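Request:
Um, any thoughts?
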Amino acid sequence: MHCLTQVPRAGMLLPARSTALAFDPKSLEELARKLADAVPPGLSALRDDLERNFHAVLQSGLARLDLVTRQEFDIQAAVLRRSRERLEELERRIAALEKAPQK
């Protein structure tokens, strides 16, 4: 199962991705199957139809959420970490230049 994390989009440099949610289809099918299995025995004749409907509703609901995959989140965390390191390095260089005697 892919781990999904909700993150704010403002200011994030996210890789291009399709509008479809990148979610493991097997996990979605498994969840839809579990929901269909929870249907009372009297409605078992409708089980396959309910499973398809559960699958469609779950996929539609997930697609509306502003989610990114764990991989996308980790990539952005690494980009942010490198940016912070670079900023700290530049701040140190500026401080050293400001302390250097003027010609």
In short: Residues 22-67 form one domain.
